[in-house]
Design brief:
It comes from Roseburia hominis (strain DSM 16839 / JCM 17582 / NCIMB 14029 / A2-183). It is a single chain. The protein has 666 residues and is of the alpha/beta class. The chain has 17 helices and 33 strands. Among the domains are: 180 residues, Glycosidases (TIM Barrel, Alpha-Beta Barrel); 200 residues, 3-Layer(aba) Sandwich (Rossmann fold); 60 residues, Immunoglobulin-like, CATH 2.60.40.1180. Helix 8 runs antiparallel to helix 13. The protein is globular.
């Protein structure tokens, strides 16, 4: 979505304040150069304090004061946290999950399919939209908040699931065969006998139910979007703040939502990205998760939540807040919005701090945000709507993510798919090889010279055939272990692995194990320790680039390259340490036409990102993700550093302060 200015601001909750300081807060925001607030998404119990009684006083006051201070407003539908009276009215509105029925208290504890929930959610949305439809400074609407199915698996949901299976498999014999239900007498001979899916030991059926749960999210967001569209103006957008797989921060592709499907009902994709700071700040999460967000609509996206002070370990060093903000823009975001403006004085998020601390006074974070706001007022038109054209893409697949949650790698557990994806993505990032993300729902990958496929464990023959054609027609494929292993129902193929990709990759294998003290060695003398997974690969037409340095596994290849018709394929048969992965990737890309990669080109902590702005000019962002001054050579044409308004010659040496940056327009 194109915009005529960058959005900069924070979530704001008048409802949470210990005393009235609305005017003061909005004045401080305006003074800091902020121009947008997000409101309402978590305040259903305030907006509808009792059944059918609506009170929009807080919303009205925030909107009116925002207009006075030239702040636009994004309204969130308040449906992700239900009021107590609704639970009393419908006790079964609380989701039944694998752990039993939810208790009231935390957010996102309801069954999103419950008819009573849907009735009241629609009623509050319509009442709010009717009340706000003519307000000029509302620029867009956020559907719900970080929506998922919340594990809902009660009797009605399971009946819906069985109905979907009956439609997909009219012949129950086909259903039993596809899911291998003869095992342990799990066969279902009559749909009426279908057991509680929460107890299944059949990973295929469990993954199918998870796919169904993801479809509930897509339907739910589309349902909300259709309601909003009845009221919104043409100039107002619809978005959702998608979040990501989580370790102790945003990590990778979300396992509980088919985000590519869910985003179809929206004008613009939105994202919430949180990450470590201080010495652990790398920018990798901003890049990986931002690339996912950019790929959902193949367009610019919005950062609707990111940290200001954040969790206690995340308090940023001086300069880091600014570095992070520009990193989002360099990735294609048209906004940076903080969760949240003011720190909360009670409840579970009391120590997830906002821009202001608990005393509401100006602080270092506020002053640095003000610096960002002043710069964006001056140069924001040069930074918005950045267009990026990358030659490398990473394929993302929900089904394989689910499959490797069911059959994980040795130690990486539920995050095994994302661990493999991040292994590759972070190596590219550290070497300043910019990349896009693409959905496994696509079949034409010809827009990219290089396609990276992490652990495509479960895939249709149609998708595998598309990858084969991609290479045959001149593409360069980088695939990892556990690719082409199972079908769409997680049923393992009974032919030689990897299924349908053997000719393309030029290899086969039939054994694998967890490595213990196994190293791999390349033909040029490099070495690294393997971990989590290794396949005993035999080369058919491929050339081995690395083998296992081991007395018993030494005859097997660990990394191979194969020429296949007009293209080539690199196969990584084991998980191994980063110090070997990076040179292998750089060497492969360089051999096949990716220019500008050498040991002398910038590497992390120097990060370089490029794109084209609305003026048709090239932007080159230079970031220093370290606490020491760094120098970098400007490799573009002569231009101007927008931050300092100083000329930059081609080949000029730029000095970046600790956690500093430069933005050269040429």
């Amino acid at each position: 979505m194109r915009t005529d200015h960058l959005l900069f601001g924070a979530a704001y909750y008048l409802e949470y304040l210990p005393y009235n300081r609305l005017e003061t807060d909005m004045e401080m925001m305006e003074r800091a150069g902020m121009n947008t607030i997000r409101i309402a998404e978590s305040t259903w119990s305030t907006l509808e304090p009792s059944d059918g009684v609506f009170d929009f006083t807080c919303i009205d006051r925030m909107i009116q004061t925002a207009a006075k201070h030239h702040l636009s407003v994004i309204i969130g539908t308040p449906t992700y946290a239900i009021p107590t009276w609704l639970v009393r009215k419908y006790p079964d509105i609380l989701a039944v999950t694998a752990n039993g029925q939810e208790l009231y208290g935390h957010r996102q504890n309801m069954d999103i399919t419950h008819p009573g929930y849907r009735y009241h959610a629609e009623r509050i949305i319509r009442a709010m939209m009717e009340h706000l439809k003519d307000v000029p400074n509302i620029i867009g609407f956020q559907l719900d908040n970080e929506t998922k199915s919340y594990g809902t698996a009660g009797p009605r949901v399971q009946q819906m699931f069985v109905a979907s299976l009956k439609k997909k498999y009219p012949d129950i014999l086909d259903f039993n065969r596809e899911f291998g239900l003869d095992y342990w007498s799990n066969r279902v001979n009559d749909w009426a006998d279908f057991p509680d899916v929460r107890g299944t030991i059949n990973q295929s059926l469990a993954a199918e139910f998870q796919r169904f749960q993801r479809s509930l999210v897509t339907e739910f967001l589309s349902w909300q979007s259709d309601i909003i569209k009845e009221y919104k103006r043409d100039d107002q957008f619809i978005t959702q703040n998608f979040d990501f797989d989580w370790t102790d921060h945003s990590y990778g592709y979300q396992p509980e939502v088919d985000q590519y499907d869910a985003a179809r009902c929206m004008t613009v994709a939105g994202a919430d990205i949180y990450h470590p700071s201080q010495d652990d700040l790398t920018g990798a999460e901003i890049t990986v998760c931002g690339n996912i967000a950019r790929s959902l609509k193949k367009d610019n996206y919005l950062i609707l939540e990111t940290e200001a002070q954040g969790l206690t370990p995340w308090l940023p060093y001086p300069g880091q807040l600014r570095l992070q903000a520009y990193s989002h823009l360099a990735n294609g975001s048209n906004s940076v919005m903080y969760w949240h403006w003011h720190s909360i004085h009670n409840a579970i998020e009391s120590y997830w701090k906002g821009v202001l601390s608990h005393d509401f006074s100006e602080n270092a974070t506020y002053r640095e945000a003000s610096e960002i706001g002043a710069e964006w007022k001056r140069i924001g038109t040069h930074l918005m709507n950045l267009k990026k054209e990358n030659r490398v893409a990473i394929l993302l697949d929900n089904l394989s993510l689910a499959g490797l949650r069911q059959f994980p790698l040795e130690t990486t557990g539920d995050h095994s798919y994302n661990a493999v994806m991040r292994w590759l993505a972070d190596a590219l990032y550290r070497r300043n090889i910019e990349f896009d993300m693409v959905s496994s729902g696509e079949r034409d990958f010809s827009a990219y010279d290089f396609l990276v496929v992490p652990a495509l464990y479960a895939a249709s023959d149609d998708l595998l055939g598309a990858l084969d054609r991609y290479v045959a027609e001149g593409g360069h494929l980088i695939a990892t272990f556990r690719t082409g292993f199972a079908d769409e129902q997680l049923k393992i193929h009974h032919d030689v692995q990897p299924h349908l990709l053997g000719r393309c990759l030029g290899i086969h294998y039939d054994q694998f194990t967890y490595p213990k003290n196994v190293r791999i060695a390349t033909t040029d003398g490099r070495s690294a320790l393997t971990h989590d997974w290794m396949e005993l690969v035999t080369c058919d037409t491929a050339t081995p680039l690395a083998h296992y340095d081991h007395p018993f596994w030494g005859s097997y290849a660990a990394v191979t390259e194969n020429a296949y018709q007009k293209g080539s394929a690199l196969y990584l048969g084991a998980f191994f340490d980063d110090e070997l992965l990076e040179p292998l990737l750089v060497s492969y890309l360089s051999r096949h036409g990716y220019e500008g990669l050498s040991e002398d080109t910038p590497q992390f902590p120097l990060i370089v990102k490029r794109g084209t702005n609305d003026f048709g000019k090239n932007l080159c962002y230079y970031f220093n993700y370290s606490g020491e001054p760094r120098t970098v050579i400007h490799t573009g044409n002569a231009g101007t550093d927008l931050l300092t308004d100083t000329p930059v010659a081609a080949g000029a040496v730029l000095t970046l302060a600790p956690w500093g940056l430069a933005v050269v327009e040429s």
